[in-house]
Amino acid sequence: MSAIIKIKYEEHEHVFDSYGWINATEAAKQYGKEPYMWLRQRENVEHLIALVEVQENSVFVEEFNTIKKLDYISTLSQSKLLKIAKKTGFVRVKCGLPENGGGTWFHPKLAVVFARWLDIKFAVWCDIQIDYLIRTNQAPTSIQDMMRLMLLPKATVWEKRFPDSFYKALAKVTGTKFNSHIGGTPAIFGELTSKWVYGVIMPKDILSELRANKRDGEKMHQWLTFGGEKLLSDQINKVEAIANSSTDYADFISRCLLAFSKVKGQLRLVMPHNDYYLDKA
Predict the structure, then answer these.
(1) I want to staple 110 with a disulfide (CB 3.0 to 4.6 A). Which of 106, 168, 192, 269 is the partner?
(2) Paired sense of beta strands 12-17 and 4-9, if any
């Protein structure tokens, strides 16, 4: 029988078991939500069905395809989505108090996807906790444990991680130019990347440690584990999409603040001109 493990995040205790399952009821409560709200969204249940299919079980595919023909927001559709989600084996519901295992529980392969719906920084934290729980059957006890899960012992060989399309999107929204890195890129690109990419996916302590250990000439992404690289790629795509859909710089900042509302503080940047100083680093 798995043990109940409580781990504190931002003054709230979240409940896991030693196999990496998360009490979704307790997690969602801190954000004013309920797990059933997430389980009634078609794209989330489709993710669940895909997880089942990976295990060479296509028993739910036909049933889900039938649900897809229903009105997306109808009560019948949402009821059937919730019902099929509970049958997949990736969702468990138990009566009783959380300390006794009560609540809706999500499988570790589903937990991080669910946590992103609540808050992206919380999702990063959950990813770290679950990985450690699965490997050791106990919670990380220090920032050093979390460092080992997210960061490599040393930087790897440089590989391109930020696509040109990302920089072109930033150039569009800041009114600057991107010239394929010839002569460097506008310094504001680095500030925006630090704030809205790394500042969102990384817990503050880990980000500070990485900046302190990184040598001149190294890029922060060279220190990321495989899981960290996946989070980086996802966040790059999100910021790029926001930049491409923004009408101007102020609109971009407003959209970022709305999308990543848990990022504390306000971004203090001066609107750049076309002759904005270039970052030669």
Answers:
(1) 106
(2) antiparallel
